[in-house]
Amino acid sequence: MPHPSHPFPAGRSRGDRLDVRDVLVAVSAMICMAGGSVHAQLPEIGLRALSQSFVAPGESYEVSIAEGANTEEVRELVFSHPGITATLLSGPARPLTKIEAPRYGSFSVKVAPEVPEGRYEARAVGRFGISNPRSIVVQKEIRIVPSVGADASTPTPLQLGLTHCRRVSPQRRDFYSFDATAGKQYSVRVIAQAIDSQLIGAVSITDAKGRTLDSAIGSDHSDVQLTLTATDSGPLTVAVHDALFRGGAAYRYGLLVTEGMSTLPHLRTEFPKSVSVVTRDPVAVDETDVPVELTVPACVEASFDSSSDTDQYLCKLSKGKPVLIEVISDRIGQPTDARLIIDRSVVDASGTQTWQRVATAEDGPNLSDSVIRLVTGDPVLRFQPPEDGDYRITVADLDTGRSLGERQRYQLAIGPPHKDWQLLAYHVYPHKDPNTSQPSGTHLMRGGARTIRVFVIRNQMSAPIRVSIPQLPPGLVCRPAWIAANQNHTDLVITASDQAPTRHSPLQVVGEATHDGENQTRQARAASVIWQRDGYRPTAHTRLTDQLMVGSSDLDTCPISIEPTSQDVVVAKKGTKVTVPIKVTRRGGGSEAIVLRAQHLPPGVGAADLTIAKDKSEAEWTIDVKNNAAVGSYSFWGQGETKVKFSVNPQGLTRETQYRDALKTIRADPNRSGDHQEIDKAIAETEKRIEAIKKQVAAKDLTIYVPMSLITLEVQ
């Protein structure tokens, strides 16, 4: 709804949302970063890309691990829908034996006919645990495109209504064409976010004379979509590429061209900041030059139709009755940065009406760590009307960029304030520098530990919250943690016993609180890192996932375990110091000194770094509770940095040695005397592989970061 005067400044950016224009400036930074060193870690599987991201109901596909880290011996693909199954493929038996040779990382994937269209998740299970999730999309009408025209003169014909699926190559465009009819409207969409692609989509449409009719660029959080009305009948060429001309296995896309508008709501990705969105049933309102009248409570849905569009609403409010007014747009994946203006109607003695500015709001609360960013461009305003009367609410988008298209949806909700809280949990990458966070799964070795961070999003709720994982798989232990009234997150530490089996299981993080005399329970939503920070991306890219998973293994043992000697609550009065006895369990390769650094200390509590000498397995940690510490129960832990010697997958050497011994047994069989030449050749080749594997599995020096078990502190 355009208005003559625009009360908002132009050119506002999207905060932490990646914009291509900003990225181009950062390319040189990536080049500088490329030469930096990376700390070695204990191996943990990370899934970057599958060979196929689009599948159709009732079909079968060969799918392999296309890109990842520590993806050795991947034996399972597990999906979030039971109707999608994967069977590990097998290769021919090893020469001269019947020893099976599985094709690790390659699967036959079947999609049952009854699987609904939508976005689902896949995880890989291998030698080093269960991976982070990667999205796949089930659609009835897809076409796998193995090759595509690389020049505008040789485009690949596309079929309207089919999603054309492939990956882009570096430094090139993919060209398609279709026959348009004059007067008809066409929608062009590049699907990338829904399949966790690194692609920042860029699309352009040209006519038979080579004239560009329209073009658009997406972002790191929004796919590109544009609509075009054909002015002439004839062929149109669609060019697709990554906005930065990157490419490879992780740069997959689906191109969908349809007649009319195309909406695929089941493919929308949810980001962590959407956890705070209350489910409502909004009423759609049409664009008009007249302010829309609302009856409180109300929730409406509209759109920003241009960079200068502002929408206005009228409602009656009463003094002494506060209301919560919020815009929901950025939190549902729209590339917007909304602003609210509240004006009160003032009528003077002559009957002349004017509007008096009484409140404004822009960004919502900033709740983030260095990885999960819950800050949002959606304004949330608790408004106390100063007088009874008529009020005008103005909504506009401060993001005036046009590259993402001209229509962005939003919801406007107004009603009585509600008290609520929600939890969000994610696996913390094991490193002292959170900027190194990357997509990774979990590989809990025997004696190992892993951290889960839990955020609380509070809405007028300040009670302490007890957080736990009530049902853990056998061999795993996790002490409950507290989010105090003055905190917005806590950490849980899962530890594996010396008898933990090899298995993978879902985790459910639960919070319990007593608020206004009522016992309340919440289950945490789960989030995952999708892409790490790099020269193109200033922060890690995260999204919501269906669930947290944990994988444990009996094949490896962590060289170091750290825990408080006692599991009792540590009680301290303000203005005092207490010591916490620490116990270290050292195993093979874990003999070096350890530096223990406090993590998630509450306000007013300090703890200096503690160095545990290489010949020591016990220490005392001094905790300083200052006078300004708030009374309450808190949880914190220590991260131990140390160097270890670790052998990666020695079982591979064992298997190859067993194969060589089997060949020698065959050679000793008198009935195989005629095969000695062939057998001797196989033994010699196997001996070479054994020597190569010995070098690969030889114990290496690694710097690792080990979480210790939680300490619960009660400040009195």
From TrEMBL:
Residues 676-703 form a coiled coil. Keywords: Coiled coil. This is Uncharacterized protein. It comes from Stieleria neptunia.
